[in-house]
Amino acid sequence: MHRLARLADPYIALLLGTVLLAVLLPASGGAATALGWGTKAAVGLIFFLYGARLSSREALQGVRHWRLHLTVVACTFAVFPLLGLATHGLVPYVLTPELQAGLLFLCLVPSTVQSSIAFTSVSRGNVPAAICAGTYSSLIGMAATPLLAAWLIGGHAAIGADALVGIVCQLLAPFLAGQLLRRWIGGFLTRRRRVLGAVDRGSVLLVVYTAFSQGVVEGIWGQITPLRMTALVGVEAALLALMLALTWYGSGRLGFAREDRVVTLFAGSNKSLAAGLPMASVLFGAHAALAVLPLMLFHQMQLIVCAFVSRRWAAGAPQVRASGGARRADGESPSLTYSK
Q: How far out from the chain centre does Cα 53 lie?
């Protein structure tokens, strides 16, 4: 339960406060230009640190769970995008084209790492597999998310030459540099995890302020009515409920053991705010505010729902033994016993 307590931190309040600050005091003129350059540097720093902390050894060790990881990847980069495309039928009656583009972008973002691991641990799932699932999703998302956005979102995402250069310079190059330097700086970063967490979160807050500040200056918030916002929340709630059901019951039909079904549920239904926000700032440019709004709402919703599910599983399953017909995703018979 301690990990869930850490997830329920003031960060959501800080995100909402940053949005309010951007609405009340948006940056303009020279300040906006300086903020733009600062945001680009912050995005590069986020992905450099991300690459420096991702363990290639853990990724290789998780290959034997290939059925589980393939299922999570399919949910993240195939099922989610198909559902996102289906929401196009809600335009213009339920969603505006801009909100639907942001909702589709949400469906293209890789899975979260930290919260998936925490929820899996509390639910007595396969934590090593959760670590690897988040790693694989993040690595694939570095290329898959921008490419899928260029293909599926089209004109709403500014995927021109400048955007492609930005993807390479702000995302891929820092990430690869972090991976190359991990051998020398990985231990140093691991020992300073708390400080680096603050750097990550501060960088994301800067991205949020920049995106929403640009939106205020350009007057795009006049396009969103309370009714549209309510509709967006309703659509996202239905999307999350559908993915939770598909990942849990689908993994059961595939014969996964309970601990692997838990991983599939959380890693296959969650989306990463830390990865999605910087990507949106590069892909959507001045229109990033409307693009990241669905992701921010969905992220808060998934934390609340998954925390509730984890608590119920942690408190309500006194003896759950992974045995019988279910088999682990790597084909081996499960041997873990779950108890209070």
A: 17
pTM attached to this predicted model: 0.80
Answer whether 110's CB lies under 8 Å from 145's CB. Answer: yes
- Dist. CA 321–CA 143, nearest whole Å: 39
**Cα gap 241→108, rounded to integer Å:** 17
Kindly state the tokens that stand for 79: 């099922």
Fill in the amino acid letter for 60: L
At 19, which helix (H) or strand (E)? Answer: helix 11-24
d(CA 215, CA 208): 11
Cα separation, 196 vs 178, whole angstroms: 14
Chain centroid to Cα 284, Å, comes to 17
Q: End-to-end distance of the chain based on CA atoms, in angstroms?
A: 12
If you ran DSSP here, which 8-state letter would residue 11 be given?
Answer: H
Residue tagged 């006194």 (tokens) = 318
Q: Is the pLDDT of residue 181 over 80?
A: yes
Contact 170, 47 (CB under 8 A): yes
CB neighbourhood size of 333 (10 A): 11
Number of alpha carbons in the 13 Å side-chain half-sphere of residue 42: 26
Neighbouring C-beta atoms of residue 70, cutoff 10 Å: 12
Q: CA angle 118-122-127, nearest 5°?
A: 60
User: What integer pLDDT is reported at residue 332 of this predicted model?
Assistant: 43
User: Range with the lowest mean pLDDT among 108-122, 145-159, 246-260?
Assistant: 145-159
Closest residue by Cα to residue 174 from 213, 203, 149: 203
Q: Are 58 and 135 in contact (CB under 8 A)?
A: yes
Section 288-313 average pLDDT: 87
Q: How many Cα atoms within 13 Å fall on the side-chain side of residue 199?
A: 16
Q: Are 41 and 226 in contact (CB under 8 A)?
A: no
In the structure encoding, which two tokens stand for residue 186, read together?
Answer: 């990985």
- Give the C-alpha separation, 222 to 2, whole Å: 41
172: confidence class by pLDDT, cuts 50, 70, 90: confident
